[in-house]
Amino acid sequence: MTGSSDGTGREPILKVRHLKRYFGSSKGLGGRSSASALRAVDDVSFDVMAGETLAVVGESGSGKTTLGRVIVRADRATDGEVWLKLADGTSLDLTKLEGRRLRAVRPNMHMVFQDPYSALEPRMTVQDIVMEPIIYNRLARGADALERARAALEMVGLQDRHMQLYPHAFSGGQRQRIGIARSLVCNPRLIVCDEAVSALDVSIQAQVLNLLQDMQGNLGLSYVFIAHNLAVVRHIAHRVAVMYVGKLVELSSTEQLFSRPRHPYTEALLSAIPEPDPDRKSARKVLRGETANPANPPSGCHFHPRCPYATDRCAAEVPALREVRPGQLAACHYAEDLNLQGV
Amino acid sequence: MNSSLTVKNLRTYFFVDEGIVKAVDGVDLTVGEAETVGVIGESGCGKSVMARSLLRLVVPPGEIVDGSAVLRRKDGSQVDIFSAPPSAEMLREIRGNEMSMVFQEPMTAFSPVHTVGFQISEMVAAHSRMSRKENREYVIDLLRRVGISNPAQRYDEYTYQLSGGMRQRAMIAMAISCSPKIIIADEPTTALDVTIQAQILDLMKELQRQNNMALVYITHDLGLVAENVDRVYVMYLGRVVEVGATRDIFVNPLHPYTQKLLQAVPRLAERQERLAAIEGTVPSALNPPAQCPFFSRCDKAMPGTCDRAIPALTTQAGREVRCFLYSQEQEATNDWQF
What residues of chain A lie within 8 A of the CB of B264, using their CB? Predict the structure, then answer.
């Protein structure tokens, strides 16, 4: 069960299979048993197609940032596979690569971070910040590298006169553009955007979202777009993966997910968001309690203590992620029976 | 309508080496009894400085240079908060007791080295004459009212032992502990997950009803405002640019900034092909020129008019708006001398 069908027949560029990342497991020092390990990412599988934006949503502590970090090998997987398809058509499992071979595939993937204030080195000029990945990956040197940096900055709407400045001279939105230029400069195939617009004001957020969409259109990029703002996700994503305490609970095309969610947690998330429309007074379903502790998750379906539809079965049996209808997977025993509200 | 708080012509400036940052520059604000008011705007528009000014929490180089804020106290008397000297006993009586504040980040607003219960009890003790035992019982009951489970145990815990949602609940418990008439909530849910945000907003609404409080939400979240407040103040660069009933503002915004802001938000209910971004950024409030604050980013700007003077806030179709498209009236020149 992988959720590879997006209906367009495009090729997957990223295949994530049974990916796990446990913290504090017995493998390392300290010798804590794996039973007490914090399962930040727990058996997650999905595909991302070429030119597609897959959003990963969930509350804090759901494991979405860890997932993104493992995909770009900023962190190691405990188990599982991450297959990235390269430009020459070959696929490599990133979790098995080390040293020089890992370094050789690094230009293919990049990450854009949440906080544009702490993500840029304050003592480097914009030009050096954007050139650094080229130099590190030995893709070009000297004037060539500079020219590529200039081209990348131009793509995100910054000019020559900005290149010698330091990050403090820029606003939040401009800094996020610099971060995006840095991620684009090696011509990656995949960009992981970790809450890339969350720290920005609404007007600036719209600028950056438009830029990301333009870049995707021009360069055929694929995005893994990690976010908690579902309105933003609806705008930019083709498909959405919903995470709860380390597990995927729903994976669906954006339209299907928003019109007819199949997991009660997705329904609750959609219902919780206030819309800037005073005429939309929906019956809000406020969830009880808080996100489960990933170090000690509830039995069965992790969501059952907060779920308004939970039965005894939910506390006992872990629901599998399965196809409920074409293009929509959900991990709920009653996905077919419940009539859940979209927006 | 009986107003709980009437602010007139509030100006809070920051005197820095480079000049004067006019963070809040002539804001009028009225909060009716038990009314919910929203103040929206992007970062740098002065909304947080305004909130802090109301409780006289602005510290140098910031200074309230002009204006009045008349608060109707619990005993019915009226008092101008801005007229008192900074150390006045009257301000201590007001803070927490008549008007209190909920801050954005409860982790930094609470002391990390005192228990949550101690900090709330301290405030209750400052404004009442309960015995220590009564005080403790009262605070434990408050914690229960804001939905904290096992409140007797939580009373003796430190903030790091509480989750973000629990900390914000404790902060709200502190804010309501002396039954104030007004609560100013500065981005009360920004640091929280959406499901927790919904819980907290419901809680605030419930407490407002029980205590007959007025609520002022300071936020950049347009959705929060649309669903929770009666009247909206839209701020830009230290000034109020539009005021009106929530529905009027959202259905038929008049000021170009309000219009653009609403278009820039991605919607849950429908999918736009492309968002209407507002080009550029909020200009600096350092020595701002005498022109419409939105001039540099406005696509309806009229050169020769909008860059010559600051439009006045005038009444248009049941609300107030600050724009030369609707009225040629100019703001009276600010004769405040430095």
Answer: 202-203, 205-206
